[in-house]
Structures are given as structure tokens and as C-alpha cells.
Amino acid sequence: MATLPQRFDPEQCQAVTREVLAAHRDQPGALLPILHDIQDRLGAVPPEMLPLIAEDLCLSRAEVHGVVSFYHDFRASPPGRQHLKLCQAEACQSMGVKALTAELQSKLGLELGETREDGSLTFEAVYCLGNCACAPNAMLNGELHGRVDAEGLLALLAEQETQA
Fold this sequence. Notes:
Order of helices and strands: HHHHEHHEEEEH
Largest sheet: 5 strands, mixed
CATH class of the largest domain: Alpha Beta
Number of helices: 7
Radius of gyration: 18 Å
Strand content: 5-15%
CATH superfamily of the largest domain: Glutaredoxin
Shape: elongated
Distance between the termini: 23 Å
Oligomer: single chain
Structural class: alpha+beta
């Protein structure tokens, strides 16, 4: 089940992008704050907005694209309603995250980096959540969980789904 591109309202994207650009206009080194601001407001950085950002900052499209593609937290489409990030860094690997990942992929029907077609869940790899002593680690909807296993994560997902 591949990640489906979610459609943005082009007028809304342009309005938000122009507003963010204006808010950061006199800030030196504003590219990263601008990208974060746009993603906070739209849920993603729409690829169609990169030329507008580049032009406003007097940068090339390649420079802006390079920054967006370099940093893993920037996305081209918004995540699902629930957002599960599973750490794949060395400490978590030493505590069995590879097997945990395979089990979750099977049970969720998603590969890392995918979003369910109905938009209910995004499953992503991250590389260090800063909780190495409690590996393996996951972040569900912005909340950190340590010493996770598949059963516990599936229970958390179900619990949060009923609360939504």
C-alpha cells in the first residue's frame, strides 16, 4: 500500500506560503524557519511551493529542494491522522527493532514510509529519538514510548483511534 499524494488547495498553499515568507522576510538564514512554518501550518511542504520560496529568498530551486530533501522531517504530503515513528538507530537495532519493524509492517499492512489509503495512519522510520537507554523507541502522535513491542504499540494505536 503506497503513500498516496494528498491534494493541496493551491490557493491556500500560496496564501500560507506568502504569509510565512512575509513573516520571515528580514530574518537572516530564514529558509529552515520558513520550511518548518509552512509544514506546521499545512502539514507538509508542497513541492509546488518550492519555486515561490526560492524566488522570494533569491535562492535556486535546487538549493531549496536540496534542503527539503536532506532533512528527513520535511514531507511532501501530510501524515495520516495517527503518526507512528519507529526508531531505526543503533541502540534500537541492538534491542531488536528490525524484527519489531517486520512484525509491525505485517500487522499494520504498511511498509516504513507509507500512509494508509484512508489517511488513518502513517508509519515512518526515524533515526534516534534521544531515548537510547530505553530502546527500542517509538513516537506516536508526538508522544515518546520506550521499550516498545508490537503488542504494546498496536494497543496504543487502538486506544488513540478510539479517542479520536
